[in-house]
Amino acid sequence: MITRKWLIPLALLPVLLLAACGTQSLSLNAANLPESDAFAVQETTPVGDSGSISLVDLQDTFEQIYREVNPSVVNIQVVAGASAESAGLQTGLGSGFVWDQAGHIVTNNHVIEGANQIRVTFADGSVFDADLVGSDPYSDLAVIQVDAPADRLHPIELADSSLVRVGQLAIAIGNPFGLQGTMTQGIVSGLSRSLTVDQDGSSGGLTGRYSIPDIIQTDASINPGNSGGVLVDDQARLLGVTSAIATTTQANSGVGFVIPASIVQKVVPSLIETGSFEHSWMGIVGRAVTPDLAEAMNLPEDQNGILVLGVTPRGPAANAGISAGTREASINGEPVNLGGDVITAIDGQAVKRFEDMVSYLFNKTAVGQAVELTVLRAGNEQIIELILGARPD
Predict the structure, then answer these.
(1) How far apart are CA 281 and CA 155, in angstroms?
(2) Cβ neighbours of residue 135 under 8 Å, at least 6 residues apart?
(3) Distance set, CA 135 to CA 132, 214, 329, 340, 386 (Å)
């Protein structure tokens, strides 16, 4: 189960934990380890081919990162409901971080969604009311703003998340379970994941979910309340925004999902300037071509691409003449529409998974741009030009 509602509601925990927000009563017990076990660590720890680093140096590195980053991370408390007098109000907690010295703070959209009051607490204990500047549900990012003195505002430096590699050090700082300024560490566990956002939109009923591309996976502990917090590298630079975990217990299971800095860097300036962000949109529903699908469609077993299952009426793909499948077959007991176009490349770049196309659209295109789709139709290759639209609200 992917948990996304990381605004941990104080009254109700959501099923989908988004980097969670909430307050709980915790019982913290020290581990009673034998002294020999507690310190059974060598004096030095190998670090790749670069030699070794002493435990003292490693500890100093962690302490320095915390000193640099923690002043940038804030606790966000929201009150959501129809009115301030409503008995049905819910209170939730999340995290955020300072973007600039104009008082802009970045967090997750799901942290502040539906809020009518937002309050920000800085690491030094100072508290400010915040206003919503802009939000984008499709990237799960939002910007709020506080009127705070410049000495309270410590913007964080962004890393180039395209250079992130599996195995590198990853450090999360946020407010899990309302415990402000909590730091955990781990590694980058995976790359190029996709995180599904529940969103109906105005897509003719063909799409009910949207995937955020290029998600970073980490085993650094992320829990309810971490949503909107930061994942940083060993240089205290932002790798991404902690957003969700995979869990069956509504707590950390070692699989956390982080919105990469590349998306943050693209979306946030637009939210500050216009209050929203326009996503390039084709208006199709599709799935990757598997060997079983290829066989059923009389294509080579090793055929790659995206089988178009649905096309939004009057959307960009429909206007370009992209065709969906109408012949139904059963593949491994699952009904699948066959006979639709198979998209094998966009602007000459091969696509094997639907997520590949979503990633390309986000990183390489803009609304109104023309793209060339390489399409297999009834086994024959065609090049179709498509003018991208803006994803409906």
Answers:
(1) 32
(2) 109, 112, 113, 141, 142, 143, 271, 275, 276
(3) 8, 20, 41, 35, 28
Question: Which of 72, 95, 104, 110 is labelled catalytic?
Answer: 110
For residue 384, what are the domain limits?
A: 280-390
Strands 256-260 and 389-390: unpaired
Q: Which residue has the tokens 């310190």?
A: 39
pLDDT higher at 162 or 128: 128
Catalytic-labelled residue, pool 227, 262, 280, 359: 227
Does residue 110 have an active-site annotation?
Answer: yes
* Structural domain contains residue 156: yes
Q: Count how many domains the chain has.
A: 2
Same structural domain for residues 212 and 294? no
What is the C-alpha separation between 316 and 201, in angstroms, rounded?
15
Which of 242, 262, 277 is the last residue in one of the domains? 277
Is position 227 annotated as part of the catalytic site?
yes
Residue 154 falls in the annotated catalytic set: no
CATH number of 169's domain: 2.40.10.120
Q: Answer yes or no: is 45 within a domain.
A: no
Residues 240 and 371 in one domain: no
Banded model confidence at residue 307, pLDDT cuts 50, 70, 90: very high
Q: CA–CA separation, 165 vs 162, rounded Å?
A: 9
**145 versus 15: which is more confidently predicted?**
145
Instruction: Give me the CATH number covering residue 284.
Output: 2.30.42.10
Q: What is the pLDDT of residues 316-343, one digit of tens each?
A: 999 999 998 776 766 676 667 677 899 9
Q: Who contacts 59 (Cβ-Cβ below 8 Å, separation ≥6)?
A: none
**How sure is the predictor about 7, in pLDDT bands with cuts at 50, 70 and 90?**
very low
Tell me which of 140, 214, 233, 356 is the catalytic residue: 140
Query: What's the CA gap between 212 and 220, in Å, rounded?
Result: 20
pLDDT value for 186: 93
Predicted TM-score (pTM) of the model is 0.79
CA–CA separation, 252 vs 285, rounded Å?
A: 32
User: In the listed set 216, 246, 277, which residue is the last one of a domain according to the structure?
Assistant: 277
345 found inside a domain: yes
* Burial per residue of 348-370, b for 16 or more beta-carbon CB atoms within 10 angstroms, e otherwise: eeebebbbbbbbbbbeebeeeee
Q: What is the pLDDT of residues 195-233, one digit of tens each?
A: 876 543 322 333 345 678 899 999 998 888 899 999 999
